[in-house]
UniProtKB/TrEMBL annotation:
Protein name in the entry: DHI1A protein
One of the record's GO molecular function terms: oxidoreductase activity
Protein family (similarity comment): Belongs to the short-chain dehydrogenases/reductases (SDR) family.
Record flagged with keyword Chaperone: no
Record's keyword terms, sorted: Oxidoreductase
SUPFAM superfamilies, A to Z: NAD(P)-binding Rossmann-fold domains
PROSITE patterns on file: ADH_SHORT (PS00061)
Record keyword Oxidoreductase present: yes
Length: 278
């Protein structure tokens, strides 16, 4: 674990964000899949707000580098744990470690993605579907179950990083799309249930388009005609939506929101517009 105490954070954020943030400052934040990509940027955003950040992914060297940068950006502390989310016991252990070292949790950011790098026609590979569902859906649920009592105690927040592929069926990424649809079902139901039980725990789902992370560009860069959007701005929007306890973040807003609105009324048109970008 890398730690630095007595740091004075220099947040760069909107006043509404800072006002809301000051209620929980300095918040304790777990970001999964934070060794690279959007998760790494989310960790930096929370660090700028002075959070205690807890990072997890499989590659330790990358996590150490990210933790170092978190401290330089103003994190109150930066710890990490190596875990493979294809193992649900490892997911449970991550939360145990968070509880032991931070004494609670304010933000659970579920962001990791894996097991579904294949972009191509569905070949009926059941093992691939099962792997994707475990890493990209069941581990999110396991982390949530394990962290629920800490989040209820802190009246905290769950931020779920999803995709337009969880709202509109996506050819060539069936296993991934299935996991994202499952996330939408689980977390929108959980949000309503918490509300009915008058539990003050927010659930924010981030619906993302194409973002310029190294892995996304490598896997689909030469296969789709969409322009990639910056991961830094994407992370800012996700953190802002989470801290402001919004139910949904759509990024990039102006390209995705019309698709999401019109898909109910004109599904054929929206799908053929999207098919033209493949
Ligand atoms: N980029 C896009 O265009 C895009 C679009 C829509 C939605 N999203 C969503 O945004 C989120 C982040 O995407 P991204 O592009 O930033 O992904 P990324 O760059 O591929 O990063 C994925 C992260 O997950 C970790 N990871 C992968 N397999 C894992 C496993 N088995 N166990 C634990 N950690 C694992 C990786 O670290 P290790 O390899 O070190 O384990 C890495 O930190 C995902 O939920 C994704 O679905 C992205």
């Amino acid at each position: 674990a890398t730690e630095s105490l007595n740091k004075v954070p220099m947040p760069k954020a909107s006043s509404a964000l800072l006002l809301t943030w000051s209620d929980t400052f300095p918040a304790r934040v777990l970001v999964t899949g934070s060794s690279t990509g959007i998760g790494e940027q989310i960790a930096y955003e929370f660090s700028r707000l002075g959070a205690h950040v807890f990072l997890t992914a499989r590659r330790e060297e990358q996590l150490k580098q990210v933790a170092k940068k978190c401290l330089a950006l103003g994190a109150s502390s930066a710890r990490h744990i190596v875990a493979d989310m294809s193992d649900l016991t490892a997911a449970q252990k991550v939360i145990e470690d968070v509880g032991n070292s931070l004494g609670g949790l304010d933000y659970l950011v579920l962001n990791h993605v894996g097991g579904s790098e294949y972009f191509g026609p569905f070949k009926g590979d059941m093992a691939a579907v099962s792997r994707s569902m475990t890493i990209n859906f069941l581990s999110y649920v396991q982390l949530t179950i394990s962290a629920l009592s800490m989040l209820q105690e802190s009246q905290g927040s769950i931020i779920v990083v999803s995709s337009v592929s969880g709202r509109i069926g996506s050819p060539f990424t069936l296993s991934y799309s299935a996991a994202k649809f499952a996330l939408e079902g689980f977390y929108s139901s959980l949000r309503r249930e918490l509300h009915l039980q008058q539990t003050n725990l927010s659930v924010t789902v981030a619906v993302l388009g194409y973002i310029n992370t190294d892995n996304a560009v490598r896997i689909v860069g030469d296969k789709i005609a969409w322009a990639a959007n910056p991961k830094e701005e994407c992370a800012q929007e996700i953190v802002k939506g989470g801290v402001l306890r919004q139910r949904e973040v759509v990024y990039p807003y102006w390209s995705l929101k019309p698709l999401l609105l019109f898909k109910e009324w004109m599904p054929g048109l929206i799908e053929s517009l999207m098919d033209n970008t493949l």
